[in-house]
Specification:
172 residues, Cytochrome p450, two-stranded antiparallel sheet
Length: 172
Amino acid sequence: MMCFLSCVWKGLNFLTMRNAEVDIFDAMQSCVQTDWVFKETLRLYSPLSSLPRRTLETVEIQGFTILPNTSITLVPRFVHHISSIYSETHRFDPERFSPTRSEDQVHRCAWVPFGKGAHACIGMHFARMEVFVFFSRLLERYRIQKTDGSLRLDYVPVLKPRKSIPIRLVAH
């Protein structure tokens, strides 16, 4: 957890400067490691439990023929844990998105928390910006401490904590 927060803090630190004009888009472009953290978090905790789709043409996948107009469901949680794409699939490792590893580039649909292609979520870039701004403001004022307990999640209809998140915010 501390490694994650350290990475986020380094990337977002300059966004918290008071009395300074900061262009959020320029700032986000220079937060490369923070972007890896964002992507890795969504790889492990995709907000959508499934993405329903319909085939347009006949497709063959691993010896199975899927006919046109067939309903299919993509489950990001399963895709993001395919061991032939991602190493140590259950481990939090933002560096898997670094240029030297680029595990998300093994297949064009290896990273799909917002869907992919023509039907990808149009809010993806807004969501990214919202997360960056939220954490820059939060980390400006608070330190995040892990508390006892474990995080229990509900996956349907969208990912959310079952009860509470085992953290404490401590003012600087």
